[in-house]
């Protein structure tokens, strides 16, 4: 087994993802767990060590690359993606860790929007697609973000809280139905088209879904399919300037990635679908390499 060299940490809205990478670039361990109790440097160190209990050899101190944390600060658009030269570094005060480099997010003042970890996934995507010019649709449990990319720069972007709206409005479903995702593409795609055609009626259409569940025994999985179709449909209508006539890369994990890709395909696009976790890890691995090169120059 490769000797652990670096820890990559992605701070999401409700949990942490963590990868331990070996000296030869292989994945040594992978963990997920609760977010730190607070957003300070000490709390993150404690959360990392709690997740890696027993993984770090005695006397070994690993460097940490972290994205999605507020201590990284943020650059303002337009800005280069993967420009980490000035990323804040704080030494660790816990055994097992040498220090944490906090990768900056990206902000936009008008309309107000923020990327907090998504920019690192985009950086990972651009490593493999250097000439990509178009839009990255980044999906997290909290939001979707449409990011216009040109010449490896973030030009502008918008955030949508569609996943949160779905969670708040969706009918209860059992575990199997949740894992299976959308049961019927026709329900979902029909609702996407309906919302894009008549976005002003979205609240009434959601009300009709709830009434049908009570009056006509509409199954929960079909109700969820229609609800998500309506929500994604109004998002596509609002984000049309971003995706119309553009290359689109959908960067995400889980069922939302397939839903957005399916909705975009129905509009005549050919979206590229890639794993958010894989791209985020690739971005942080590149940041670690850049940091190590900086030590020798």
From TrEMBL:
Span of the signal peptide: none
Record key words, sorted: Kinase, Transferase
Pfam families: DGOK
GO BP terms, alphabetized: D-galactonate catabolic process
Record-level Gene Ontology MF annotations: 2-dehydro-3-deoxygalactonokinase activity
Domain of life of the organism encoding this protein: Bacteria
Protein name in the entry: 2-dehydro-3-deoxygalactonokinase
Organism: Paracoccus seriniphilus
Lineage: Bacteria, Pseudomonadati, Pseudomonadota, Alphaproteobacteria, Rhodobacterales
């Amino acid at each position: 087994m490769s000797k652990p060299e670096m820890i990559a940490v992605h701070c999401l809205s409700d949990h942490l993802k963590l990868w331990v990478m070996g000296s030869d670039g292989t994945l040594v361990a992978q963990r997920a767990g609760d977010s730190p109790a607070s957003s300070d440097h000490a709390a993150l160190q404690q959360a990392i060590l709690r997740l890696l209990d027993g993984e770090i050899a005695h006397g070994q101190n690993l460097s940490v690359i972290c994205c999605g944390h507020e201590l990284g600060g943020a650059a303002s658009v337009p800005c280069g993606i993967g420009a980490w030269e000035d990323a804040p570094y704080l030494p660790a005060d816990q055994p097992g860790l040498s220090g944490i480099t906090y990768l900056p997010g990206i902000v936009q003042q008008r309309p107000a929007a923020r990327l907090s970890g998504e920019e690192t996934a985009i950086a990972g995507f651009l490593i493999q697609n250097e000439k990509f010019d178009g839009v990255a649709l980044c999906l997290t449990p909290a939001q979707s973000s449409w990011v216009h990319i040109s010449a490896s720069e973030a030009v502008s972007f918008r955030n949508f809280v569609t996943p949160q709206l779905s969670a708040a409005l969706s009918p209860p479903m059992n575990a199997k139905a949740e894992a299976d995702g959308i049961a019927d593409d026709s329900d979902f795609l029909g609702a996407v088209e309906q919302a894009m055609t008549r976005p002003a009626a979205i609240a009434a259409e959601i009300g009709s879904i709830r009434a049908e569940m009570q009056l006509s025994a509409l199954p929960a999985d079909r109700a969820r399919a229609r609800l998500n179709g309506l929500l994604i449909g109004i998002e596509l209508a609002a984000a049309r300037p971003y995706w119309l006539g553009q290359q689109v890369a959908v960067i995400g994990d889980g069922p939302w990635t397939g839903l957005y890709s399916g909705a975009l395909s129905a509009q005549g696009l050919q979206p590229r679908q890639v794993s958010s976790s894989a791209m985020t890890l690739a971005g942080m691995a590149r940041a670690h390499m850049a940091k190590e090169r900086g030590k020798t120059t």
